[in-house]
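Example 3.
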Amino acid sequence: MAFLVPAVLAGAAAVAAPIAIHLLNKTRVKVVRWAATRFLLESLEKNQRRLRVEDLILLGLRCSFIVLLALGFARFVSNPGGSQESANSAPVVAVMLFDQSASMGQSDGFQTRFDQAKDAAGKLIDGMGSGSQVALFLIGHRVNQVVPRPTSNLPLVRRSLEMAEPTHETSDMGAAIRLALETLKPFTGAKKEIIAFSDGQASAWQDTGEIQKLLAEAPDVSLNIVDLGVKSGEDNLAITLLKSEAGVLAAGQLSGFLVEVSNFGTAPASGVRVTLAVDDGAPVDESMLETVEPGKSAIIRLNSRFAKPGYYTLRAAIPADRMPVDNDRAVAVHVIDRLNVAVVEGTVTGSKENRDAYFLANALTPVATSRRADYYLKVEPLAPSSLQTADLSRQEMIFLTNVPKLDANAAAKLEEYVREGGSLVIFPGSKVQPAAYNDDPVLGPMMPAKLGVKKESGQDAKSSAWQARGYSHPVASLWNDPKNGNLGTVRATEWFPLVLTPDSAARTIMKYADDTPAVVEGTYGKGRVVLFSSSATTDWNNLPIHPNFVPFLQRLVGYLSAEKSAGSLVIAPGAVFQSRVPGDLAKREVSVITPGSEGKSRPAGKVEMVNQDAVVRYRETAQPGPYRFVVAGADKPVAALAVQMDPKESDLRMVPRSDLAAIGSGKAPAQASPSAAAPPTKVRREFWSFFIGCAILVALLETALAHRFSFAK
Amino acid sequence: MSTRKSLLDPASIAKGEALGLIARGIVEGYRVGEHRSPFHGFAIEFAQHREYTVGDDLRHLDWKVLGRTDRYYIKQYEQDTNFVAHLVVDGSESMTYGSDKLTKLDYAKALAACLAYLVLGQSDAIAVNIFDTEVRDRFERTDNQGKIHEIMHRLARFESKEGTQTASVLNDLAATLRSRSIVILISDLFDDEESLQKSIERIRFHGTEVIVFHVLDPYEIEFPFTGTVKFVGLEGGPELETVPASIRKSYLESFGGYCKRMRKMCDRSSCHYVLCDTGVPLDVTLGEYLAFRQNHLSR
């Protein structure tokens, strides 16, 4: 037998109250000089015995009432399990770790894994010996210490547990166990335990070696991993990627979106229908994946056309399975009306094919001349001398190609343009003198890297090729899939090595095969500067005539345009979303249309002013899916975002049982799991309702008897 | 009524003059509108005729009327004022109980004073005996109205000390009764019931009328105590500690039975039994009884 809330037993001391009142009444005697003693004596002699019995009955009932209440509120439980009982009734100091990752939301059709874990934890708490203390940590992408320190207030732990829900985040059990060990460190004397409730998803248990090491350093702590009965990784088909294929999305243009469907199961998935819908509308495109092999992914392209510029959300979906959260995936995009690009070229004379901007201009508007008027991207050629008089504010980005030198006024104007948020792309060339850029007091600080001494391929033919794999930058990541071509065939004959300063925050977009930077980007003020190491003509390299030049340039433009327009429109669950909006919306009320709200909006605060920019900020992004922000009176969203779950969570593969057994106490999970704890929970019974019921009956009986006795007398 | 009750201030009753004033106030209040003595019985003054009925004493038949008219008429008489009222007041320790400031003894003194005032006021004689185990204070028979103040003083200054021997006192009194008189016993009657009955019967045997004023405190009648109470017996009774609420019903049964027996005893001996609740104003109790008596005797 045990008590779940033993502290309440102290309340049983109140049993002394009726006895004390009884004794107190004896001492508080009123003395009366009485004449009719004879009759009093007769009554007493006749009733004394009965009175004494009645008093004892009432006293007994009153004491019983208090004892029953105390037993009820102390939550008395019994366990006729003999030695099991004594073993389990020993007080423990425990930290319960709850894997709150998205995979715990997987359902068997009746209960999610998280619900199973909650049931198991509830039974485990019920079975704990009196005096046990429990802390509760919920593990998402960070450890949420709901009950930060072990407490004997087990109902509080239970309540906290009941309120917990699975998130759409990833979890790191290693970090949680480290924190749990820290929490348990100050406790001495009692048995110390870490009880982990997890589905054993491999992605959550990556650091098994590290966990073993930590537990070895704390031999007094045992780790019990609760087996939720998940025998192996469930089959799961998930959309693990949805993104715009093109760099820039423009109104009226057909835009492609890449949808990656991954099969985390053990059997091939065939006939997978993939749909793409815009906002809350019906699917605008769909396609069928014939087969997705187990452990493999398949990418499919779906298209959409946006009639007007603005913010849109798109949602790709596949048929439902047991883990519904990854059966669709959303992305938010900003569709522009048109994009103005200025190209400043060093050579403006000669045939058009020999001009520095020839390939660049054609790559930026890769359509027939007759259709260029309708194309969203407008290229405006500029001479270096006209920079200081041109209206640069109209331009989304400016390309400098083989410009030998800028005069001070032009450089200052360019600096102001970038500082205020413009994008500058620099292609060097034969006319460029590195010192004119590196040492210019205005241009120099803007440069993400210094231009080194020009090199030629004759000196090192191998190093002149671009890297063939391992692209990490968003602009180049498309070519990680060999089906999209190979940038490794881009070769430079001449180039300026890009020299990054040790403290440079510049980011490499592309490298040469010898790992030296070929294209780098850096920030300056609110803007960005991209620096190529070679020219935009075929004089120094084959990039302008490379098949991937156009897509590379388009992606670069799209990347710079997206970064400028709104920042990231895709965030992880729980991250804070922030997007600039037009200044005239400052202080206006904003509503948000969240996933699953069926188009209904709810208040999301006001447009804030941050560094003189009007900004929409939103924090309640736990639910994956599309979010659109609207302002009263506006006919279209002022911002949009998509919360995308980490694709790792869709991989339900389990850590091998042997690995789990090796962790911590070396116990097999089956021994330490609530499946082991289950037998006691099966035989354990809580009697609080019984005791409270008895207390009520006793109270009623006492009232009735007291009434009857007082009348009988 | 409550004003009258408040007049029965124990401090006032302890003073002769004040007791006299109280008695006078009550009696004069009763007398307003009354013209006949409530104490009928030994008629020597003709009052009226009425027709003879079977069972009437032939001694009272008016022979002259029979001779003249050949009709049977009985002569009726007003009571003579020459009777002696023996006031027998219980001054035992049990009479000192009072749930309020007013004790049963205070009440008995006031009642005795009223009766003395009433009797002397109609030129009858009065004798006062205050007793406990024996007669402690005796005021010999007198019809002198000037003695009323002395009677009041004697009543007022009496203080109880002993237990009760009502029966023996009544037996002694019975032995001294020479002429027809009225014995008025004012007591709580906490004595042996059998010997008390014998004593009253002995007095009645001499043809003396007996009126019993049974003086009781409302707490003795209703027993409304709460909490735990230690009862210290007056007249040397045991100390009894109990929760009165728990035995109230039993006590009331026992005490009620006793009161009934007292009433029956008086009925059997043809005595008037008057329950005097000290919680009820004295003028009410006395007025009701005198009215009853007047009606009863006039039939």
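Residues 43-79 of chain B form one domain. Chain B is about 45% helix and 25% strand.
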